[in-house]
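Q: Sequence in, structure out?
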Amino acid sequence: MKTTNLNDLEQSVLNAVQKEHLTSYEILQRVEDVSMLLSLYNILDKLSNKGILKSYVKQDTKYHYVA
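A: Exactly. Output:
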């Protein structure tokens, strides 16, 4: 398995979605170090590009989870 170095913010986001699938807003509420939604979207994109995070849409709401 390929190891990936994650910064503290990326690890915090992963810890938030580790146990359950969450929306971006729910992640923002649980991760204290991220104060703006745009910053969170950048982190989500980075994790998704690394193949660590996946997303899906259910009833017009986007959820994120650890792959």
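Residues 10 and 32 are 12 Å apart (CA to CA).
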